[in-house]
C-alpha cells in the first residue's frame, strides 16, 4: 500500500478505535468507504450548524480518504474499471471542493450517493468470489 493509502487509513483510524491491523485488504477498502461517507455526513451537519471550521476540516478528511481509495487502485492494469473508478473518485473530490466553497449540502448528498453505490458493489465482491 502506498503513502496516500496509508494516510487515508490514518485519517480513518483517528476516529475509529477498532484495529485495522488484522483486516484484509477488502475490509480496509470498505472501511475507507465507510469513513468517507461518515465524514461527509458530519460535514453536512457542520454546514447546517454553520460551523465553517469543522465543515472545512471534515470535507478535507473526506477528500483525503477518497484520494487514498484512488491510490489503492491498480493503475498498472489500465483497464476500463480502474479508469472509471479513478475518474469517479476525481469527480467526487471536485464536488466536495465545490460543496466546501459553496456550502452546498446537495453536492455532499450527491457524493454520498455515489460512494454508497460503489460501496454496495464492493460489498458483493466476496460473495461473488466465494461462489466461484
Instruction: Give me the CATH architecture, please.
Output: Up-down Bundle
Q: From the structure provided, what is the oligomeric state, counting identical versus distinct chains?
A: single chain
The CATH topology is given as: Four Helix Bundle (Hemerythrin (Met), subunit A)
CATH class descriptor: Mainly Alpha
SSE string, helix = H, strand = E?
HHHHH
Uncertain regions: pLDDT < 50 for 5+ in a row? none
How much helical structure, as a percent, in the residues?
Answer: over 70%
Overall mean pLDDT score? 87
Number of E-type strands: 0
The shape is globular
Radius of gyration: 15 Å
Provide the structure class. Answer: mainly alpha
- Calculate the terminal CA-CA distance, rounded to whole Å: 27 Å
CATH superfamily: Flagellar protein FliS
How would you sum up the major sheet? none
Beta-strand proportion: under 5%
Number of domains: 1
Q: Tally the helices: what do you get?
A: 5
Amino acid at each position: 500500500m502506498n503513502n496516500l493509502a496509508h494516510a487515508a487509513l490514518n485519517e480513518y483510524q483517528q476516529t475509529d478505535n477498532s484495529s485495522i491491523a488484522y483486516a484484509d485488504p477488502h475490509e480496509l477498502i470498505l472501511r475507507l468507504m465507510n469513513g468517507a461517507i461518515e465524514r461527509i455526513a458530519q460535514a453536512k451537519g457542520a454546514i447546517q450548524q454553520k460551523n465553517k471550521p469543522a465543515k472545512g476540516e471534515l470535507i478535507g478528511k473526506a477528500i483525503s480518504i477518497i484520494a487514498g481509495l484512488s491510490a489503492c487502485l491498480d493503475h498498472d492494469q489500465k483497464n476500463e474499471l480502474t479508469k472509471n473508478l479513478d475518474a469517479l473518485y476525481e469527480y467526487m473530490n471536485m464536488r466536495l471542493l465545490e460543496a466546501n466553497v459553496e456550502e452546498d449540502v446537495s453536492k455532499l448528498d450527491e457524493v454520498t450517493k455515489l460512494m454508497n453505490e460503489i460501496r454496495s458493489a464492493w460489498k458483493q465482491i466476496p460473495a461473488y468470489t466465494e461462489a466461484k
